[in-house]
Amino acid sequence: MKYGFLGAGHLASAVVFGLIKAGVQPDDIFVNSPASARSLADKTGIHYAEEKQLIGDSDLIVLAFLPEQLKKIIQHLPADCFQNKLIISFLGSTSLDELQKSLPAAEIVRSLPNVNAEFDRSLTSIIFGSTISEKSKQLVKDFFNKIGSFVELPEKDFPAFSAIAGSGPAFVALFAQSLQKAAINQGIDPETALTISLKTLEGSTENLLSRQLLPNDLIKAVASPGGSTADGIVSFEKDDFANIVNRAILATINHGTK
Ligand SMILES: NC(=O)C1=CN([C@@H]2O[C@H](COP(=O)(O)OP(=O)(O)OC[C@H]3O[C@@H](n4cnc5c(N)ncnc54)[C@H](OP(=O)(O)O)[C@@H]3O)[C@@H](O)[C@H]2O)C=CC1
Ligand SMILES: O=C(O)[C@@H]1CCC=N1
Prior knowledge:
The structure is a single chain. This protein is α/β, with parallel strands linked by helices and 258 residues long. The chain folds into two domains: 3-153, 3-Layer(aba) Sandwich (Rossmann fold), CATH 3.40.50; 168-257, ProC C-terminal domain-like fold. It is 52% helix and 14% strand. It has an eight-stranded mixed beta sheet, sandwiched between helices. The protein is elongated. The two termini are 41 Å apart.
């Protein structure tokens, strides 16, 4: 099985590292982009390839460039080079319909992984195009199982999924940074403050997942009656924390409507 990546940016790099950790041979991965592809190839042992060769030789082609680059990239390639090719798009805001119109002869999958793919932790949403075969569907599922897990979603849910799972790592990092700043404000040195923040996030997520707790159960378990955590929760609620998060998710979803 040969994999070809058009684009070598943050998401492509995370997925390439994830595939290699899952046992894919670097020799079986090809990458092309104007600048970064060669350094990704040097770092990982995968191969740089010219676009046409990459498309011709790959069993599965990943579109990992920015949505606005789609038309330009397709236009300068021969019209028939994507004939019967299996293509997975990572393009955040590009609909399945748009992809199928741009690449009518290909088998298309729209997907939204996230950068946690590097550690086998991407929950990816997928939607299969109308012309995709059962065999190709299985190849796609195998691909996403190598970098985490996947969920099949209707297209209407992609914007919300993108805002929460795709953009989410950035929002979690923002919360981590806020916890770190709060610790620094209390006189703790920045490095220790970051460790405290990250280890607390890591342990709390593990706690929720492994004990299959609802978030409110963990809140109750930590906020001892009459204790200090309850005062912190009241302060968050006064500042409308849930709405702050909801507004940020809406702003993310509404990006394309500006
Ligand atoms: N980052 C994330 O967490 C997520 C990103 N996405 C989607 O993934 C896609 C990539 O995002 P991200 O990795 O963040 O973006 P980056 O800006 O990090 O990477 C974009 C890549 O596109 C490449 N590129 C530009 N022109 C071409 C071309 N002609 N042929 C091939 N490659 C080209 C760039 O190459 P070069 O560097 O050589 O100029 C670069 O490697 C986007 O569509 C985004 O919506 C989806 C979910 C999460
Ligand atoms: O910021 C973006 O546009 C992409 C889509 C989801 C995460 N990153």
